Amino acid sequence: MISRSLAPTLIDSLAHSPAVALLGPRQAGKTTLALEVAKAAGRPSLYLDLESEQDRGKLAQAELYLSDHVDKLVILDEVHRAPGLFPVLRGLIDKGRRAGKTAGRFLLLGSASLDLLKQSGETLAGRIAYLELGPFNVLETRHLAADELWVRGGFPESLLAPGAARSLRWRQDFIRSYLERDIPQFGPRIAAETLRRFWGMLAHHQGGLLNTTQFARNLGVDAKTAAAYLDLLVDLLLVRRLPPWHANLGKRLVKSPKVLVRDSGLVHALLGIADKETLLSHPVVGQSWECFVIENLLACSPEGVQGHFYRSSSGAEIDLLLTWPNGDLWAIEIKRSLAPKLERGFHAACADLTPVRKLVIYPGEEDFRLAHDVEAMNPSNAAMLVNGK
Fold this sequence. Notes:
14 strands
């Protein structure tokens, strides 16, 4: 059992909110974490999987059934399968508040569907806290080989598979399952092969600027349809749009977001990359590692930290710009080299933005200074630094 860094936050949220929604892609470990937290809390709990017809049948009269379990933490898995539950939960939460039961009533697990976000936003406002659980990150897997997480990705079944071939097979099956079974639940019917081609294009384009028109042309659909495909994958927490930094600096800045497949293991599966040796000779290797670092630093950042990139028309560029709630900026450059060197564009961007901290992330073991105000460190140490600011 690998401990999840989100566990203390989840426990705290349950202690202060009547309902908590734990969102994340399928197979990221939501159910395992929920059951572990319920066990650690030392209080009775009830687990219902709403993909099970038997468990859905128990909720045919949901208000009556759940009223019999008011002293338990009720865990509702894949809750988007029963959107009619939300008005019932609202009533039970309000009734419980009047009886003095103000926290820890319901833990809702969902695959980040639009349905879930919309329903809970409409009916549980002020009664629910939202948390996001992604695949394993570098802080949770420091005991594993340094590049294992990068090559296989952070989904537990993939990362902990007994061999590279089995890991790749799991990811390929995961992608197929999402395309053929899961994604149709969240929106209008989309041809699985078309969406797989789109997902594959994103993997080839990993970390590049979003060009919806080009994607649409390659798919043979209109730009609006391609944008809808991207929105769906973003809402399912499978793809990230990294926004550009905007400020009134008197400079022409890039306005298109970068787009990246969030789990590096899925990138490699979509491209048919089976192991590290194959990856190191593939053209995507640099962008794959850069996006792996970006995703992990964002995953390990405290609540309220925002991620951007910075690029001007004159060539000034920063791979990742972290914006802290107090207004501080951290400039982060990512280099897959044991002897990283800063380029003129990074220095120009820092002159524009005056960040309070400058980091270079590289794959080596030791931390050292590249300049008096620039630190070089590996992803794990950088994630610890970001997490503990």
